[in-house]
Design a protein that fits this description.
This protein is an alpha/beta fold. It is built from four helices and three strands.
């Protein structure tokens, strides 16, 4: 299965047309493609419903049914050298619904 992840600007004016066209073209590829729209952009949830996509205001795995990424995929990726960098992404970093 192919999954397309996407974030968007607000679905207003010309951006509504552009983004709906892009989402619709992805959906036209196959009904089997999983499309997940992230973010709290205005109209995002309605756009997801229009093309039968999943919608999540955050990227928490419980919201989109994603499984944990295997450790071997990320074990050799260097982390940023930033003071007080916290590599853990917890619920505190996301907006609540």
């Amino acid at each position: 299965m192919i999954t397309i992840f996407s974030t968007h600007k607000n679905f207003e004016g010309i951006f509504n047309t552009i983004q709906i066209n892009a989402l619709s073209s992805w959906r036209a590829l196959s009904t089997e493609i999983e499309i997940i729209i992230f973010g709290d952009s205005k109209g995002g949830k309605e756009a997801a419903n229009e093309i039968n996509a999943k919608y999540s205001i955050t990227m928490l795995e419980d919201n989109v049914g994603m499984s944990q990424m295997p450790e071997e995929w990320i074990e050799n990726i260097p982390l940023p050298d930033i003071p007080n960098f916290d590599p853990e992404w917890n619920e505190k970093y996301f907006k609540s619904i």
